[in-house]
Amino acid sequence: MPRISVQVVAFFAFLALPLSYATAQPTPKPVIIEVDLNKEKGESKPIWAWFGYDEPNYTYMKDGKKLLTELAQANRVPVYVRAHSLLVTGDGEATLKWGSTNAYTEDKNGNPVYDWTIIDKIFDTYVERGMKPLAQIGFMPEALSTKPEPYRHYWKPDNSYGDIFTGWAYPPNDYKKFAELVYQWVRHSVERYGKAEVESWYWELWNEPDIPYWKGTTEEYIKLYDYTADAVKRALPTARMGGPEVTGPNSEKATAFFRAFMDHIVKGKNYVTGKTGSPIDFITFHAKGSPRVVDGHVQMNMGAQLRNIDKGFEIVASYPTLKNLPIVIGESDPEGCAACSEDFHPSNAYRNGTMYSSYTAASYARKQDMAEARGVNLLGAVTWAFEFEDQPWFRGFRDLATNGVDKPVLNTFRMFGMLPERRVEVNQRDLSYSFQKVTKESVRGEADINGYAAKGTREAAVMVWNYHDDNVPAAAAPVSVQIKNLTASRVLVQHYRIDQEHSNSYEAWKKMGSPQKPTPEQIALLEKAGQLELLTSPKWMSVQKGSLELPFELPRQGVSLIRVSW
After folding, report:
1. Which interval of the chain is the signal sequence (predicted)?
2. How does pLDDT run across 203-233, given as a tens digit for each residue?
3. Which terminus of the chain has fewer CB atoms gathered within 10 Å of its CB, N or C?
């Protein structure tokens, strides 16, 4: 029998393949991202160094302290922290969507009793780490509520919001007593931390007063704002006071509330002084996206969040005397409920993995562009995500860590924290998504592959993401980052990565079999997997005519940070 050569066998095997395989596949065209270090765009504002959460008593618990330490260490600037329920009456028990400090009670004769013990534990935890409060003045102490019963709620992740807006959400029965509480709190803070420290904080009134977080009217909120702002300024004239923390301004109700508040600030009659207007040092509102499950997978809606941001900027810009004030987006997230777990809310399944990471990178990079386009002053955007003590591992809360183990999204903030001080121009040659297009359409066609770059005196860094609203498998994208006008002949290149294999404690946990009672050895491995990892070893590279080209593959929902130093 004649021998058949290997080449012949291979040839007939090739012919047997489907045409789609037999035909040579073209190599995907790389996405070219050009970074010109000579084209500065102003300050790289650390708008990402702001965080918040519902449960203030988690602050000083074991995992809360650990996470706050990591957030403080991840940023080159002081991190600001916003927490609900700092004036709520109770014993300090920590549970989902509830917290208390018992700062204000009254004796049997109706005289105020102030107790700063728990608030001090919270603020001490921040200050000890070089962090600063975005001090939320709220909610209503039981003794001051116009409808105190029922006061405490017992919310669970499968509940609707209907039963949480209890006695703490009502206006005060005595505005002067509430104002005196605020005055005493600010004065105590100055005595404890010093005038210079408290001057660096931000004070604000309430949360989302356009929905049942506030059971009063718009005018009652405005009245309370006047009393509160007056009290803050009496205690510390140089303190920074702001509001109104409305929900997404893209809704008619939120817009109406926002404009009523701003109109009062500019030309209303002050309830305390009788003069025109009310003091304000910064302006706040919220912006959320809207994910859903489509054909068995999570589909995000970044456009919905960005439209809320843009509407808020538009409203602020329409007030000439206020448009230059700092803006803090007091909650800026992919959706609304941090404590709504994946097991009851399938659309929140994005939270444990890299989709949350890439969404965060792509959305934060656009916020500064949007502010510049509207001519407003964006100071910060609060990520409303923290940690939930003693909950099941990777339950799918919107949190940065689970049981003390960092989730992939936290590594995006580590990357942001490594960006130098001056922003530089990024040019994506085949740009599919400008910030205007993402705002209008979200990311539903091609993937959004783009970057954000900044430089320092002897360093530069480029963050690159490969994001899509649909969380479905896709091939990795070839990317070429080209850095121009480097002033050194040799540079040290460090490439950090978040993807399925890097900086990803969730994938490591699944490979272990998803244990709900991991061993100490497994926890140590998970903690290591939760840290930001290098894709490759650092390497020195030669610069050719002031330029450096760095090609690599970036998986879908992956994020890279390339740091170049000399």
Report:
1. 1-24
2. 999 999 999 999 999 999 999 999 999 999 9
3. N
Burial class (CB in 10 A: 0-12, 13-18, 19+), 372: middle
DSSP secondary structure letters along 47-67 = TT-EEEES-GGGTTSHHHHHH
Confidence of residue 156 (pLDDT cuts 50, 70, 90): confident
| Tens-place pLDDT, residues 486-513 | 999 999 999 999 999 999 999 999 999 9
At residue 558's C-alpha, the angle toward residues 556 and 563, to 5°, is 140
CA torsion through residues 125, 67, 365, 257, sign: negative
- Both tokens of 159, joined, read 């509940």
pLDDT digits (tens, 9 = 90+) for 162-171: 579 999 999 9
CB of 37 within 8 A of CB of 483?
Answer: yes
199 is catalytic: no
Residue type, 398: R
Three-class secondary structure assignment of 106-126: ECCCCCEEECCHHHHHHHHHH
Closest CA to 225 of 250, 257, 199, 201: 257
Give the closest residue to 148 by CA, choosing from 207, 92, 215, 100.
215
Residue 432 pLDDT: 84
**Of 104, 131, 106, 130, the residue nearest 119 (C-alpha):** 104
Give the tens place of pLDDT for each residue, 230-289. 999 999 999 999 999 999 999 999 999 999 999 999 999 999 999 999 999 999 999 999
pLDDT tier, 13 (very low <50, low <70, confident <90, very high otherwise): very low
For residue 321, the SS3 value is coil
Residue 19 pLDDT > 80: no
User: Residue 462: in which H helix or E strand, if any?
Assistant: strand 459-467
Q: Are 40 and 424 in contact (CB under 8 A)?
A: yes
| Cα–Cα distance list, 336 to 49, 193, 333 (Å) | 20, 34, 7
Q: Is pLDDT above 50 for 8?
A: no
What's the mean pLDDT in 434-448?
Answer: 95
Q: CA–CA separation, 380 vs 329, rounded Å?
A: 6
* Cα angle 509-511-512, degrees, rounded to a multiple of 5: 65
Measured CA to CA in angstroms, residue 76 lies from 47, 424, 465, 533 at distances of: 12, 18, 22, 19
Beta-sheet strands, E only, within 270-404: 282-288, 292-294, 297-299, 326-333, 377-381, 383-384, 401-402
Nearest to 473 by CA among 555, 361, 535, 553: 555
3-state SS assignment for residue 84? coil
CB 106 within 8 A of CB 52: no
Beta bridge partners of 498: 559
Write out the CATH class of domain 26-40+421-565.
mainly beta
Average pLDDT score over the chain: 94
- Asked if residue 484 has pLDDT above 90, the reply is yes
Instruction: Give the separation between CA 172 and CA 175, rounded to whole angstroms.
Output: 6
Choose, from 208, 245, 335, 387, the residue flagged as catalytic.
208
What is the C-alpha to C-alpha distance for residues 65 and 83, in angstroms, rounded to an integer? 14
Three-state secondary structure call for residue 377: strand
Instruction: Provide the 3-class DSSP secondary structure of residue 225.
Output: helix
Residue with tokens 């091939």: 475
pLDDT of residue 86: 98
